[in-house]
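Posting here for the record, re: 2'-O-acetyl adenosine-5-diphosphoribose.
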Amino acid sequence: MKIDHSTRVVVLTGAGISAESGIQTFRDSNGLWEQHRIEDVATPEAFVRDPALVWKFYRARYLQSLQAQPNAGHKALVSLEQNSHLTLVTQNVDGLHKRAGSKKVFEMHGRLSSCFCTMCQTKFDMQDIQFEDELPYCRKCEGLIRPDIVWFGEIPYFLNEIQNVLKKCKLFLIVGTSGTVYPAAGFVMTAKYFGARTVYVNLDEPGNMSFIDEFHHGKAGDILPDLIKKWTS
Ligand code: OAD
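Prediction output follows.
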């Protein structure tokens, strides 16, 4: 496959692309969901029940994300953006794609570096937030502030925009995701039905393998630089 500036490409990434930056994935052994129950930290109900516990979990992940550096996989996707007509969709909340230099990024599950008031919806940068008794409150209306993370049971961001680009793309590249969390796991079906070539780069065979044309088994940081060079040179 050859790619140039007119080739419409959509990339979907998951936790696996940040694993080589030292950020834990969710479902691998020793992953985040082995240490924490989704019901305790990643649902709106959990936040109502115990907001301090939920904040403790996301603050720790925010601080970890600040320490992490983009890796060869993130950087290869910057080069793909510079040589194609690309939209990058990520389930990751660590901000590493933007820090690597990717420009058009839909962070569909939100961002660790952002939060918003549960009452007036005002958004804040995490770096500007003060915690009192382990909880942050809005400067405008004194409502409780929550992480800007899309929890289980909530609707991801940018779904219309993502559907539009999926229907037009020639290549759909999926990297480092287990393919088990919807709606992201279903994007490959849309791309395939609308005629895209579908390529997967992952350590394990994903849950939605039947829609994949080409599977590259291995680490994103090892595979993406060569693969993208081959497509774009
Ligand atoms: P998972 O933890 O489910 O899957 C990570 C995938 O990355 C696995 O299939 C690994 O085999 C693969 N992997 C690990 N290291 C890799 C590497 N170096 N190179 C390539 N692949 C590697 O994470 P996600 O699929 O991102 O949602 O999870 C999807 C969503 O579920 C997350 O956004 C999060 C989670 O619960 C919310 O919190 C709403």
